Amino acid sequence: MIYPLFSGVSLSFTTFSGVGEAKWTGLDNYQTIFTDSVYLKILSNTLIYSAFVVVFQNGIGLAIASMLNGLPKVRSLFRTALLVPSMVSLVIAGYVWQYLYSPLGGGLNEALAALGLKSVQQIWLGDPSIALIAVAAVHVWMYIGYSAAIFLAGYAGISSELQDAARMDGATRWKRFRFIEFPLLAPALTVNITLATINSLKSFEFPYIMTGGGPDGATMTLGLKVIKLLFNEYKFGLAAALSVVLIVMVASIGLVQNAYLRRREDRI
């Protein structure tokens, strides 16, 4: 791991097409990344994609876990069912959802029509204004059960005596969640947010399979652009520089986020 890492960093300061000798260009590749509007848009796409995934994957996962925690008789069954999407191949899931999003006979638009909601129908993967969110929603769907399972494990560590005492004091369901459950789920929240952030920032599979980065670059992420620079454009030096930017971004966001969440745990 160490040799390829340093080799990639070294390559990022060159221009190289895969054959011949690499030519030293200094910081030119990095200057291109941080000044070219195309790459700034890709960076923005990646951050929006990650933010959407982190918020909705963990928000919905927590809601599901909270609901299942109050249903002990069916908890194990539903927990297993929720994990099924994360066991499906990313390629298969991507192609299935590409079909479901299809504007011509796709399952989602057909379901909306059956419910009398034709006005809500969209060209989900063809409209630049919603394509990125449509792809990110598939990422959320796939891993939402994973987040719910981690939150359920956190619920298992909450003493039932605290819940019983709160009920005897007349605390409503919402107050028990807000003042007892949510604070004590801090370790599970730290794990979920950290994993979701890292996983979504480096994501390229769903954009690659479902849209190829289109339409008009609306779903192009850093991970996908690296692949395209390597295998479509043969710009190895620029791809290496973009990879370094991605690594630094993931590490920086992950460290800051984890430090904040750990301090939050200590305060609680």
TrEMBL record:
GO BP: transmembrane transport
The keyword Transmembrane helix is annotated on this UniProt entry: yes
ABC transmembrane type-1 domain boundaries: 43-257
Record key words, sorted: Cell membrane, Membrane, Transmembrane, Transmembrane helix, Transport
Keyword field contains Transmembrane: yes
Sequence intervals crossing the membrane: 46-68, 80-100, 130-158, 179-198, 238-261
CDD domains assigned: TM_PBP2
Membrane topology: Multi-pass membrane protein
GO CC entries: plasma membrane
Subcellular location: Cell membrane
Signal peptide: none
Entries under InterPro entries matching the protein: ABC_transporter_permease (IPR051393), MetI-like (IPR000515), MetI-like_sf (IPR035906)
Pfam families: BPD_transp_1
Family according to the record: Belongs to the binding-protein-dependent transport system permease family.
PANTHER family: ABC TRANSPORTER PERMEASE PROTEIN, DIACETYLCHITOBIOSE UPTAKE SYSTEM PERMEASE PROTEIN NGCF
Record's protein name: Sugar ABC transporter permease
Species the sequence originates in: Alginatibacterium sediminis
Lineage: Bacteria, Pseudomonadati, Pseudomonadota, Gammaproteobacteria, Alteromonadales
